[in-house]
Design goal:
Strand order of the largest sheet: 1-2
Pfam family, one: Ribosomal_L28
Distance between the termini: 14 Å
Helix content: 25-40%
Strand content: 35-45%
Protein name: Large ribosomal subunit protein bL28
Family: Belongs to the bacterial ribosomal protein bL28 family.
Low-confidence stretches: none
Radius of gyration: 16 Å
Structural class: alpha+beta
Largest sheet: 2 strands, antiparallel
Keywords: Ribonucleoprotein, Ribosomal protein
Number of strands: 4
Shape: elongated
Length: 78
C-alpha cells in the first residue's frame, strides 16, 4: 500500500496550492512516513513499522504494547 500510517491510518490528502496571483494547482499532501523498528516485549520480537511522525510521538507517550493493541484492533498486520 502507498503512503499510509500503520497506527493512525493517515493517508495522503488532496487539495490546491494557491499562488500569490490566486492561481490554483492541484497538490498532494503526503504524511511524513518513517520506518521504525521497535522491540515488542508482548510479542517477544522486533517489529518494523511504517509510521507518521505523529504516530511515533504517540508510541513514545503510550508505549509500544498499547500501540500494538490499537493496530491489531484496526486489523493491521504486524
Amino acid at each position: 500500500m502507498s503512503n499510509h500510517c500503520q497506527l493512525t491510518g493517515t493517508v495522503p490528502r488532496f487539495g490546491n496550492t494557491i499562488s500569490h496571483s490566486h492561481r490554483r494547482t492541484s497538490h498532494r499532501f503526503d504524511p511524513n512516513i518513517q520506518r521504525r523498528t521497535y522491540w515488542a516485549p508482548s510479542l517477544g520480537r522486533t517489529v518494523t513499522l511504517r509510521l507518521s511522525t505523529r504516530a511515533i510521538k504517540t508510541i513514545d507517550r503510550i508505549g509500544i504494547d498499547a500501540a500494538i493493541v490499537r493496530m491489531q484492533a484496526r486489523g493491521e498486520r504486524l
